[in-house]
Amino acid sequence: MLVGNLDCASVSIFVTKLEINICFIYNRLSISFVNMQHFFIFLLQFCLLACRFMVDFWREIGLMGCLWPETFLTKE
C-alpha cells in the first residue's frame, strides 16, 4: 500500500526513527536540566559561602561597625 511516494513500511520506520529521536532529545534535555539544577545549587552555595566569608572578614577588620554602627555599639 502506498502513502504518497512512500509505502507503509517506510512510514513506520520513519515514525519509529522520529520517536527515537524525540526520546533522545527529551533525555538529553532532562540530563541538561539536571546538570543546570546542580550548577545553580553550586552557584547558590558558592555565593552564600562568599557572603559569609566577606562578613567574617569585615568583622575581623572592623568594617562592620562602619557599615552598621547601631549593631556594633559598645557600652562604655
Brief synopsis:
This protein is mainly α and 76 residues long. It has one domain (2-67). It has helices at residues 8-61, 63-67; strands at residues 2-3, 6-7.
Share of residues in strands: 5-15%
Main sheet attributes: strand count, strand direction, barrel closure? 2 strands, antiparallel
Count the E strands: 2
Task: Count the domains.
Answer: 1
Helicity range of the residues?
over 70%
Distance between the termini: 99 Å
What order do the SSEs take from the amino end to the carboxyl end, as H and E?
EEHH
Largest sheet: spatial strand order: 1-2
Low-confidence stretches: 1-7
Gyration radius from CA atoms, angstroms: 30 Å
Shape: rod-shaped
- Can you give the mean pLDDT? 66
Tally of helical segments: 2
Class of secondary structure makeup: mainly alpha
Quaternary assembly: single chain
How would you characterize the overall build of this protein?
This protein is mainly α. The protein has one domain. It is 78% helix and 5% strand. It contains 2 helices and 2 strands. Strands 1-2 form a two-stranded antiparallel sheet. A hairpin with a 2-residue loop joins strand 1 and strand 2. The longest helix has 54 residues. The N terminus is likely disordered. Keywords: Membrane, Transmembrane, Transmembrane helix.
